[in-house]
Write a structure and sequence with these properties.
Layout (H helix, E strand, L loop, with lengths): L13 E2 L8 E5 L3 E4 L6 E8 L5 E14 L4 E14 L2 E8 L7 E12 L3 E13 L13 E4 L1 E2 L29 H8 L5 H28 L1 H12 L3 E11 L2 E9 L5 E8 L6 E6 L7 H4 L2 H12 L3 E10 L2 E9 L5 E9 L2 E9 L7 H25 L18 H17 L3 H19 L8 H10 L5 H14 L7 H16 L7
Parallel strand pairs: 3-9
Antiparallel strand pairs: 1-7, 2-4, 2-10, 4-7, 5-6, 5-8, 8-9, 9-11, 12-13, 13-14, 14-15, 15-16, 16-17, 17-18, 18-19
């Protein structure tokens, strides 16, 4: 019997795979193989990947050998694992279990572990290899075995004497097209010296760790990531996890999770390209602070007031932010389960698009639709007729444009405060605190020449930079924010005292942050 078991995978051809759902599949033609004594136990293996890029991972082999003796049966298990890169498409490979001069049976388990957005394992069902003549009446099982990507554990493929790390060994697995399997085995046999392999894998593990550390360092310095982190920190969220999937030190994908003291979470994800993060996606079931131009927009305030009056509460927030602007997608739900949606697009500090949609339960009534079409057709005909009639009788007209008066921010802020007091009397306490906070922000932003309403965090930072006492203003803003986002409560006396302080600031009788 030849000494040892030779394990080798080599490339026989590469086929182009049409684009489909990204997954990796391992398959073999049969479940059982009978190999004559003295011949090589070469078992065909097909690896199919529908990813559009090469995937680095760990390929593992667990071989259980059974040897039948006189009245005894010995069983031994050997596990070996190697870093391996699966290219996009279909890869025809061969698993070589060596050869044997005596009858014996092997059970082979083949796995491939890799990481996409999470740890994934492809676990091929057990293959049985019989060395020797088949028993009377037994034949090779013709049923193919196959396995496709599923949730797994990267560490599960580690052997008893080898430390597994992720690396690419595609340079060790060269194309064997035009050569015999025997030549490919001799040229592409993987290292058998476990000490040398362990040392090599350790070096590559350290290199991979350094690349990941560099990736995270560059990521944390990115202006957009820093801005998102600052915004969530202002909302009392702290980062609980960071998962990076670097392709290089400055490129790759990432995901982060932020959590507050109440257990609310925010999922943050994006991609870094050449050291720059172009956009970031934030998703949460909790209410997040929105861009200032949207929050100060009258149409938006009218929309959320309408939803609040109808019993809707925000239950999902999706923000896609970039250095040039952002998109906002808000989902609201009422106690009956009906949903409403507010969608907005901002370019820089300008709100360029805003829409609201409320889910309808009742079926569409076709009669009003038909009536609407008929009325529209009549109106179009009337417009066409009048246009034809007066086309030759048209006269020039001039319009006088009234010069637009300067924006009276003090009066506007006081009106917002009046609306807040009215809303509080109507038991709309969250909306009332929202209007009160907007009133003081609008006044102080305009009073200090900023020109547009800024966020709570930006306002406090501005007052500190101007050497003005921010404590009274910050106390008011914190109370408004806590009530607005259901993190606190306020009674009538407290609200009256707070609005009186705001009114004093607006009319010039308060500190106004001085």
């Amino acid at each position: 019997m030849k000494t040892g078991i030779v394990l080798s995978l080599f490339i026989a051809g590469l086929l182009v795979l049409p684009a489909c759902a990204a997954e990796i599949t391992l398959s073999s033609d049969q479940k059982e193989y009978y190999i004559p004594l003295g011949e090589a136990g070469e078992i065909p293996l097909t690896i199919t990947s529908s990813y559009d890029h090469a995937v680095d991972g760990i390929i593992g082999f667990t071989i259980t050998e059974q040897v039948q003796g006189a009245g005894t049966m010995m069983t031994s298990t050997q596990t070996q694992a190697y870093s391996y890169t699966v290219p996009a498409g279909t890869l025809k490979s061969t698993f070589n279990a060596g050869s044997s001069d005596v009858e014996k049976n092997f059970k082979v388990q083949i796995t491939f572990d890799y990481t996409d957005t999470s740890a994934i394992r492809v676990n091929l069902p057990e293959i049985i290899i019989h060395f020797g003549s088949p028993q009377h009446g037994s034949v090779s099982s013709q049923a193919p075995v196959t396995s496709t990507s599923g949730a797994g554990n990267r560490n599960a493929a580690s052997g008893t004497s080898i430390q597994i790390v992720q690396q690419s060994v595609s340079n060790q697995l060269q194309s064997v097209q035009g050569r015999s399997p025997q030549q490919a085995l001799s040229e592409n046999q993987l290292p058998q010296d476990s000490a040398a392999l362990k040392s090599q894998l350790q070096r590559e593990a350290e290199s991979s760790a350094r690349m990941k550390a560099q990736f995270e360092e560059i990521l944390n310095r990115d202006p957009l990531v820093s801005s998102v982190n600052e915004s969530l920190s202002a909302d009392r969220y702290s980062r609980s996890s960071l998962t990076g999937n670097p392709q290089s030190a400055d490129s790759g994908t990432f995901s982060m999770e932020y959590r507050n003291a109440q257990g609310d979470t925010v999922e943050v994800a994006g991609m870094m390209e050449n050291g720059v993060v172009p956009s970031i996606r934030e998703k949460s079931g909790a209410s997040l602070s929105l861009p200032a131009p949207l929050f100060s927009n009258a149409s938006y305030q009218s929309a959320i007031q309408r939803l609040d009056e109808q019993g809707y509460t925000r239950n999902d927030t999706l923000l896609t932010v970039s250095l040039s602007g952002s998109t906002v997608n808000l989902t609201y739900r009422n106690p009956q389960g009906k949903q409403a949606f507010i969608n907005a697009t901002l370019t820089g500090q300008n709100l360029t698009q805003l829409s609201m949609e409320i889910e309808r339960e009742e079926p569409v009534d076709i009669i009003p639709m038909i009536a609407g079409v008929v009325i529209a057709a009549i109106m179009m005909f009337a417009i066409w007729f009048l246009h034809r009639y007066y086309r030759d009788r048209a006269v020039e007209r001039s319009e006088n444009f009234r010069e637009q008066e300067p924006f009276d921010y003090r009066t506007t802020a006081l009106e917002l405060l009046d609306q807040a007091e009215t809303a509080f009397k109507n038991q709309q306490r969250r909306y009332a605190c929202s209007l009160a906070g907007q009133a003081i922000r609008l006044f102080l932003s305009s009073e200090n020449g900023i020109g547009y309403e800024i966020t709570n965090t930006e306002l406090i930072a501005f007052l500190q930079a101007q050497r003005k006492d921010p404590v009274p203003v910050k106390k008011i803003l914190d109370i408004c924010s806590d009530v607005e986002f259901a993190k606190g409560a306020i009674n009538g006396d407290e609200f009256t005292s707070m609005t009186a302080s705001i009114r004093s600031i607006i009319t010039g009788r308060g500190t106004s942050g001085k």
